[in-house]
Amino acid sequence: MRYGVLGPLAVWDAEGRPVRVPEAKVRALLANLLVHGGGPVPADRLIEDLWADNPPGGSANTLQTKVSQLRRVLGRDQVVREPAGYRLLLADDVLDALRFQELADRARAHREPAVKADLFADALALWRGPAYADVAEALFARGEITRLEELRLDVVEDHAEVRLTLGEHTALAAELGTLVARHPLRERLRMAHMRALYRAGRQGDALQSFQELRRELAEELGVSPGPEVSALHEAILRQEPRLATPAVGSLSCRTNLPAPLTPLIGRREAAEQVLARLDPGANTRLLTLTGLGGVGKTRLAIAAAREVAGQFTDGVWLVELAGLGAASTPDDIAERVITTLGLCDTAVTEPDLEDLVGWLCRAVADKQLLILLDNCEHLIEPVAVLANAVLSAVPAAHLLLTSQEALDIPGEVVHPVPPLALPKDTDPQTAARSSAVELFVERAAAAAPGFVLDAENAAAVSAVCRRLDGIPLALEIVASRLRTLSPHELAARLDDRFARPDARVRGLPDRQRTLRGMLDWSWQLLSEDERTVLRRLVVHADGWAMPSAQAVCADDGLPAGRVPDLLSRLVDRSLVVREGNRFRLLESVAAHGAERLAEAGEESAVRERYVRHCTELAEREDELLRGPDQRRSLERLNAETVNLRRALDLAVTHGAAEYAVRLVNALAWYWFLRGRFTEARRSLRAALAAGEGAAPDARLTARIWLTGMELRTSQTGAVPGPADGDLGAGVGDPVLRARLRWFVGTGLTGSGRHREGRRLVEASLTGARAAGDRWGEAAALVELASHAPARDGSAELGAALFREAGDRWGQLRATRALALAAEDEGDRVRTERLHREGLLMAEELGLWTEAVETLTRLGETALADGRTERATELYERARSVSAERAYTRGEIRAEIGLGHAARLRGDRDAATDHLNRALAKSRASGHGVHADAALAELNLVPRP
Fold it and tell me: What is the pTM of this model?
């Protein structure tokens, strides 16, 4: 059972259908037990609460009768008698008041304003009226009613403040007026209203609101407004710039730039030059930072990009290219950008998506954004093609690149990044002004606490910086040696190392020889086991977690249990970088380690361990993707995406067909959940072309996954149906066989081939039940119910099975099917509740097109109930998410909904504007059905 107290007392069964609780006293009894949150309530207390000063004769028996009546409604085991009294059994998620508090807490903990606003809105949407409305006059409920009402107002204020940061001041100015009139003494609410009025161009009304607050406080409490609201009043009078509408979004939600682990040292002038070039008003739209490895190009680029993030309304995005192979195409790079921008879910809605560069350009055509492409030197040609396309098609796009060489294309501005400034003499005060010395001292103090630059060590420190040519990476690595060496000893060892003939590498520029010599020296100072671990780690394309390091580095001569300690020592020596629970190598260190790996003759063995580990990791995670660990598993696979691609490339290139096929089969469901159909198709084809080394049923499995993927990404009828009459008959695992039939069947249904699709889904249901696969049974039941709503309980059973499995994606699908059924039955309350639940799950899983579709359905439900303001808010959210995710169809539907809501409000001008925008977008994008809908709605708008 589920209970609602945020409004009139309500009870729903497991399927969401209302349950009637008869008689006022029984309802009051239930309310009393709910007020106590599942805690015991003594019988004497219940009698007093229910009958006050007029208890009936035999009151204990009468109470027992009411309890029995309640048990008949809820179930006998739901109300229990204990020595301390009667208690209602409550699970964590069955009471709307607890759900309200949970959503509010999640919203406050989240960093992204857009998500915070959504969560606060979902929390407030749970309120159906005054809390405990049935028993509002009862003494036992008054304390809880007051507490909940205070919590609601806190959330209203939180929500208003977040919406102000998102630029929703015009809507808030209207909405908050009623609330302020109802709660005239709440200063925080008043401040939000004043800010909204001011930003909406109503400065006079904002000042008048303050005067009303001053008068109310004086008359009611005899006090003056507090310092915060008074300061806001003064700021409005002075029209201070800080009150202006902020750029929509915040750094946290408009960028993926990592937080700096250490401050940027010695680059003030260079940063200012880069910032000037990156200004959206400047003429430079393609800026390439060039320089040798280890000079600090990436650090400088990220620091500069963070500084200008607020000037790019659609975000600043870091796209790491080091993990891509040298044979990568412009589409491969475009796919990486699409993934980084979070547009995979949107791209899935496009049929025959082969030209990824073109689709990316269309998707961001009207956006103002900065894309940072890091480590481009091995991909000069494809990056140049992508850059040309983006800059030509996206007028407000800017590109910032880091590379050891320039692209050499029109419009590119090259900014060389030199090493840090060297000390001019050995005087401590003069040397300290050198950026090279500043960085060395900073890192030395971190490695050896208490280290300072002084007259005794200044000469040695200056010698070290000059010997290393001011190269930041070299300085950071050797600074860690001060744990065991004095500055003079360190300088002497470097002099000895660089004076030796074997330290000179022919054919390299001087500064590159310096970096190479320093890496060679650092290598020689490592123990044999440390060298082994360092060179074996280079096989990772994009960092690693500790289990991966153990799997790849350990062998008969090096136990896995020793790897964590050895890795820790490499971190201490600044040869490995730790970021949270993951580790990575800097470019120059990785290149040096790759040479050492080849010298050791270990490339083949390490590659095989790496491919095997990645395959087994993917197979383990595949099992978790259909259960309660689904979200964490998705996050882990997201983090390992580049490594998994590298493993597949290695398996295909080196003839490991068995691992290639196992890997793509394990990743197929992940690709589906993440909407990465282009990657899935390419990877499955590559694995199948790798040779015949894989088992026949594994190859058949891969072919079936490929068929299902192609059905979802090609136009209707473009993909032939399954060739055999009994799809997957050669797959030995009955569970997998049934799931594959479901996957292809749903693909056929989605492409309009309903009869073929239904036949396969029904076969999958039979197979899943025979194999005892409750997940497969749930998936088939929900799919069948989604396309042919019936009252046979299929959707309810599927939803229950998905809940049992803990699969949030499955619960989302089931919730949508139940909502559609409730909509067909005309049950708007249940429809709205189910859509709200689905919205939360879609946002949790990052399924943004699903979130948009759900928001529009919620908007339609609100309009059907005559709640135009609520509908407008929902459609605005849908439009905002659609615009951010380049989801054109969602934008069009949201604009049509906004036009409909405006028409019902009597706002003819707003309705016309929204519908004309929808019509224009529909025609421009080829969405003819939506164009017809927009035109039909436009014809209903009254003419002036």
Answer: 0.70
